[in-house]
């Protein structure tokens, strides 16, 4: 272990070292010289997140003070090896940690002005048992349940998640359209039902739009037909009808221009009968009530106090609505009143699946999860998560279970979506190569701490933390075949008894005495490149 | 011929655990015990089972046969005191004459519908649970044979434990073997064995046991004593019981044999027998434990039912105080006879209710404590639920 | 490392340890009322490869391409439908084998063994049979088979399920020794301790259960177990796919060191091409049960010829955000091996597809020094042999190691 702070030698594993050529001064480091205010606003601000797991073998300090910020439209990569706590971070944010044995101890997660972890102190109390290392926890399950309920306001529409195993993440007994439709209805119900109820099929623009469409279908390209179909959808006021018209024509093939009666027939679904309208109005009302209660939840999380009266009033309205309209359910089972909504959701699903580059969205929508391969399912998951237009997408190892060529397709899709939709993405993975492809900024985690955060180029060209350097040095690279694979000595620490001070010090080639005593503070090196290491904190008094 | 292991020049490394290192298997059990301790229900179950084992051991120390009423004194209702040992204490009088004391009954018809318990407990087997428990004396139908319920329950502990453990244990062992072989080898062996199992499962259990014991004991191959009949009973039950285990073990084996370590053993050249013995079976016993715990409670019940149905054929001369038997005997057999013979539901069961209650209660405690314990053990052993 | 890895290694003079020729494995699909066979999953469909002493051959492909099955076939963990795997054929015999197969190749349609009944071919088949009796592992029995099995070992992918959870490590690693009755008990445990040291584990670990170890350590235990009988050839079935990056580097370094110390040969099966590049001397690329390209490592990665290889290489992400690459993104999914596309199996996704590709299957031919490709872009310039299609007949089955393959009509 080196006893002295080395000169700024080329970092292990960096390009400089590999090629032996010092980087020119104009090496492409990210230069964000814009002032703070001009940058995109922060969507998620995680401050000092601590999550512990209380197990038979002891307390696993999975996260011990994790902080980071995500800005709108940015892709943040969360990288680390097994056991470093990256998945735990994502799940702590959305309160998906299984409560026994895990527990989010403290921290703040600020999202849309609300603290998602607003009630932590009241949810559990801790009492250390004398003479043993153990702690007695008393959990107040009602509080925990209440807090988890509040998260419904945020999950899905604010923060949505994609999980690792696409084949087991979907319910096998419902069709794809049903599942995505359900998500759509919950998060976008108001818009959808509104559009359906206000569809104007006797608008004067509709007929000429149909004529125009059929004209183009005779000898236009697919793209042109598409545009004309969407115009028809606009004319009617329901965009999913445009999708439907497009697929009707596509199926008809060469006889597309004689499809007029088919289109007219299809338009019938946009004219719901009286009974169907009642049903739809009820769905609309439910959607509005959902929105109201989500607003109440958000306010509660913002102010940190419960708003019982507001919640109770919404619940009352909901219940009375249910009772008053029970007959609709009964009648609806025999009638077809739900059909209009189902059709609408179906075609919206088809539109979504098109957005994730699935070649035959109509068949896929009608089909079931077990009929699809892993890559397709992952796309369906992405479609489902994006259907509610969330602010943040948490992707937990989305491509780990997929083959290389399929992974390339998914990464391509994610890059495309980044530019089109502009959701902030948190990409959790252990594959540094995937990060290099997709991410804008990277956080490297080790044993429950973030050790380095940097824009992606800076991280790969100039890794500062010894752990990052070690990681980069141990990856075999296709473009550097003769690179020697240097492995970091030692192994990942036991999080029940983590090393004191900096958790990496037993394996660090530059360890100093101070590293054993206190955890290094996070210092900023250059613009927006932070690292938690004593190598970069200037002279420190050695005790 | 044992081949020589080429030794390297490295210094000999100790292959025994050093003094301070605990035996890893003990460490595992300690951990299991820790989890078990925290499970209240399992501890209750364990407590009851320990209690029953002590009862069984105590019962072995009782010197007299259980139907001996001279030495096991009975409390005569109304007299207010205990009799002295040696005094006959059964309340019997010739039919037709007046009852000598209130609370003294002779025939079932004379019992009132509800008899308040008139009993006290006393330790050391001198004070009974009630007297007046009777069974039909098959050698002399019409006369009554009395037994001491308390003694019956004591002895019942070791009978029941012995019977259930031996039947379930043997059934599980045979089922394990058959299931492992069938599941591992697959193909024709699997098909044949499973069809055989299907046939066995379709045999009505009690009927089979009844007929087997009756027929084979008639053939008098092995002699005709209580021990022989008991052995036959156990054997017949085992024959009927093992197919359940074979099925569940086979299911588990189908999963285990796909595991990579089985393939690794094959790659090392292990023979099929070795793989089944050392890899498949230890990793597939888990569902067996679960099923065993459920069955242990139901064996005494079945035997009781059996006795009730076919008592005279199986055990013409003796009875044995197993709990299931006691419960069966407590119901007046003339009820059944009158149903069968008269085909009228002439049910006037004048039975001291405690005669049915206590054996049944003991059975219930036994079955449920085993159940609790096995639930707790299963939770403690399951690696996924480890906290 | 370059010199040791030996980019020019393929034509070494090292003796051949394992040589597989035209190995095929078909799994029947059962359906219908009586579970009659309604089709085959052509998991491995005519794969040939050679591994020399001290060499690492990398086997790459995506899931479903059959590479795992190939690994097991080479060890006879599953029985092949047809084909041979030879263990340590002498150099002369090996040459002769290559000659025989070359001569038989034109009469051997790539899809299924159809050979002619002409007398020359029959003689060749007989000769092949004789060699197979001597050296093919599928023909060995009893003691001979046990001896051969000692030399061919495997390390599995999943370090979590490849060790029996109820056995102490000491027993796990000692098991191969016990099976083959090597030494006394204490000698065996002694050897176990040595093996653990060889892979970098503390012998104190003898006394633990598998679940007390991390993934990397368990994989090392698996390697120790594979080394117990001093094998010559080890199949490594995705040994590092379930491990973290830094642990992966440790394992790869251990494997390299062991290879140098003990002159081991490896078949390294993986879908991580960058890892394969780091450790292999030559690489075989498979797609849907067939070999599509085979070349020394450097050659394959610098000059990939088959479009699938090119797509595969371009699909791999590189940890360098500045590198801009031409990416070939393949459309669609991998077809099912139960119903492979006719002709060239890759033609449904191939960016360079031609009309001939959906009709005729391309044979694996040598295009450059030690570089073989199966693609119509590189036409077969060998002279067709005298055995034309008209002479093809029912003697086909005899070619393939005794298993009868029904001839395809016409």
In short, what is this structure?
The complex is a heterotrimer of chains A (543), B (387) and C (410). Chain A is of the alpha/beta class and 543 residues long.
Give an overview in words.
Chain A is an alpha/beta fold. Chain A is 44% helix and 16% strand. Chain A has helices at 15-19, 86-93, 120-123, 141-150, 176-197, 206-219, 222-236, 239-252, 260-267, 274-303, 308-324, 326-334, 339-355, 361-366, 374-386, 404-421, 432-438, 456-461, 466-474, 513-517, and strands spanning 42-55, 58-71, 75-79, 102-111, 114-115, 124-128, 135-139, 159-162, 392-396, 424-429, 441-446, 449-455, 522-524, 530-532. In chain A, the strands form three sheets. Chain A has an eight-stranded mixed beta sheet, with helices on both faces. In chain A, strands 2-1-4-5 form a four-stranded antiparallel beta sheet. In chain A, strands 6-7 form a two-stranded antiparallel ribbon. In chain A, strand 4 (102-111) and strand 5 (114-115) form a beta hairpin. In chain A, helix 5 (176-197) crosses helix 10, helix 5 runs parallel beside helix 15 and helix 8 (239-252) packs antiparallel against helix 9. The longest helix of chain A has 30 residues, at 274-303. Chain B has helices at 24-37, 40-60, 149-185, 187-201, 205-219, 226-256, 260-267, 272-284, 286-314, 323-330, 333-342, 353-381; strands at 133-136, 144-147. Chain B has a two-stranded antiparallel ribbon. Residues 1-19, 73-95, 103-144 and 338-350 of chain B have low confidence and may be disordered. By secondary structure, chain C is an alpha/beta fold. In chain C, helix 6 (169-179) crosses helix 7 (185-198) and helix 7 (185-198) packs across helix 8. Chain C starts with a helix and ends in a 37-residue tail after the last strand. Chains in contact: A-B, A-C, B-C. Chains A and C meet through helix 16, helix 17, helix 18 and helix 19 of A and helix 8, helix 9, helix 10, helix 11 and helix 12 of C.
